[in-house]
Backbone:
């Protein structure tokens, strides 16, 4: 069945270090992937997206990498800041506006 | 500037008493979604509207219904809330951009069932 999962439920990093959050997906038909950030008590917030015809996309301090061969997605955050502390979800859209969220990774940034 | 607004932020309802959660948007997006999110879990899609077309997820209980009277508003009706329906309910919108488009989420309504 369709599923999106994460390898690490929690990640703790030192302020200023780079963070890498990983995600595995199982639906090879998925053609659009999104990373969301969710802070406590708030709704998820869009960070960055990538289509299946790409393998890398960069934003401001964030980079998403897509490896379709092994069905793996990662989010890299450069120079992690305390404000980056949140739960991060990868999500996949197989079309038809059905967005499936992964289990989430909680990122802790230590000052 | 809030673009997806959910009311109320917190809702307490009695077991079995119908409750309605509201969502409005100022983005003029054609797609609106309702998600259920329980503590420490990922949001789970309940259903979505593409314009006026309603799309229900196969595993969404019949207890959950939705209405979209116009582009801006969407409602989630829980006909007979059970204790297991206590959760955060998230409304989201997106614009069809060739079959893709990120979702914009509201702040959510936290539902407590007593």
Residues:
């Amino acid at each position: 069945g369709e599923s999106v999962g994460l390898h690490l439920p929690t990640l703790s990093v030192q302020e200023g270090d780079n963070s890498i959050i990983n995600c595995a997906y199982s639906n090879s038909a998925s053609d659009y992937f999104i990373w969301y950030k969710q802070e406590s008590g708030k709704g998820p917030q869009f960070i960055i997206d990538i289509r299946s015809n790409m393998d890398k996309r960069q934003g401001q301090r964030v980079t998403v990498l897509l490896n379709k061969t092994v069905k793996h997605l990662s989010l890299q955050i450069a120079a992690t800041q305390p404000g980056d502390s949140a739960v991060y979800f990868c999500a996949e859209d197989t079309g038809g506006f059905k967005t499936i969220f992964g289990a989430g990774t909680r990122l802790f940034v230590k000052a | 500037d809030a673009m997806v607004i959910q009311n109320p932020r917190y809702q307490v309802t009695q077991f079995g008493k119908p409750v309605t959660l509201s969502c409005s948007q100022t983005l003029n997006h054609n797609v609106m979604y309702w998600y259920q999110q329980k503590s420490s879990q990922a949001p789970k899609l309940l259903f979505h509207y593409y314009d006026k077309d309603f799309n229900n997820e196969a595993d969404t209980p019949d207890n959950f219904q939705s209405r979209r009277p116009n582009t801006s508003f969407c409602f989630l009706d829980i006909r007979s809330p059970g204790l297991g329906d206590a959760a955060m309910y998230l409304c989201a919108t997106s614009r069809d951009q060739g079959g893709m488009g990120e979702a914009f989420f509201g702040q959510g309504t936290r539902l407590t069932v007593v």
